[in-house]
Amino acid sequence: MDFHHLKYFVEVADQKSFSKAARNLHISQSAISRTIKALEDELGVVLFMRNAKSVELTDGGTIFLTHAKRVVFMFEHLKVDFENEFRLEQGSILIGLPPITDAPIFAQLLGEFKRAYPQIELELYEHGSKKIELSVQEGLIDIGIICTKPNPKEFESFYLTSDPLCVILPRDNPLAKEKEISLDMLSEESFVLHKDDFNLHDEVVKSCKHAGFQPHIVFETSQRDLMLQTVGAHLAIALLPSRLCPTKGENTKVGTSVVVRPLVRPEITHTLYVIWKKGHYLSHASRLWLDFVTAKLPLPSGSVVSEGK
């Protein structure tokens, strides 16, 4: 077994096709088939179920893929990370973050890091927290920003920031006269929520159920402006972190047609965590970013940073 055996195996698993994998790797299909067969013989396990239309991993193949991806990733990054350690600080970091990230804080962190390490490239991918967790697990991105408490068995993590949710209502909604709003007061309202690949979606639905009602969801979106427009059109109410709510100084049609009220009983807090895969190789550039962020954002009292970077 050598590196090429593993690389060919990972490509076939990703493409679910021997022919597509062969084209991507610029080798013949027969060569890649022989390599996979030799790998299966060496392991004593069938890695793929083959049929005329597709190729699917067996249970053994699924387990082996996790280890193979880790080895391939480390091998492909070996030269770059070695040079980073002994020459210039360079490389790239793939970071996944939800659209509801605290933009001012995060943008400031990225800007300061880029000024400190101009030769390190930052690539950002915007997805819901659930997809970000999965992407970190699969090694598709290096670091993730999520808004739910990470599973310590799967991720190393640290606290980034938190923000309470507020209720956004049409200005002529009867509840707009209230100074603060409890969740049970919204039982008869229609909701516009983030899509269900956002953990905040699940948190709101769960809190509504605890308050004694199932929320009537009329629309789901990942776009903050579209959510506010839906409220401004009298179609629904919304729950957003306070920093993403329209302000009195936001002189737009939407900003002047809605009101923002604190959500109480219960207060729902939108908390962000930085995560990376536990026990997984982390590039030098990624370790620099984590060290930089933790130095810039001292942990609140009682918080614990997971070790093992």
UniProtKB/TrEMBL annotation:
Native source organism of the sequence: Veillonella seminalis ACS-216-V-Col6b
Presence of keyword Transferase: no
The protein, known as: HTH lysR-type domain-containing protein
Gene3D superfamilies in the record: 3.40.190.290, Winged helix-like DNA-binding domain superfamily/Winged helix DNA-binding domain (1.10.10.10)
Domain HTH lysR-type span(s) in chain numbering: 1-58
GO molecular function (one): DNA-binding transcription factor activity
Keyword Ion transport attributed: no
Keyword terms: DNA-binding, Transcription, Transcription regulation
Highest taxon above the source species: Bacteria
Family note: Belongs to the LysR transcriptional regulatory family.
GO cellular component: cytosol
InterPro entries: HTH-type_LysR_regulators (IPR050950), LysR_HTH_N (IPR000847), LysR_subst-bd (IPR005119), WH-like_DNA-bd_sf (IPR036388), WH_DNA-bd_sf (IPR036390)
Lineage: Bacteria, Bacillati, Bacillota, Negativicutes, Veillonellales
